[in-house]
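ugh ok fine here u go
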Amino acid sequence: MNLKKFEILLKEIFKRTENVFLTKRNEYANNEDVFKSFKNGVGFSLHTEPEQVAWSYLAKHLESIQSIIKKLPNEKPSKELIEEKVGDAINYLIIIEGLLKER
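structure:
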């Protein structure tokens, strides 16, 4: 992939990531606390910290990405699957960074 195509890819990823956050925000957050669902997750999960809850969600997506990679070159993933799984992993990394910085 040349530099021009990579720059286009970056812009697409950043825009898609922002769109997912904007779409999901009302479902998982509120104006007072964007990390509400991860903090609430502490109450019913096996974890004691919201970062641990977010890590569990991230791990699920990382395992899925690993599974996709292991199937190569025999099974090529769809563009939609790649964008969903990698996008979710990126989003959880951003959430973890935000939770850590909030402390």
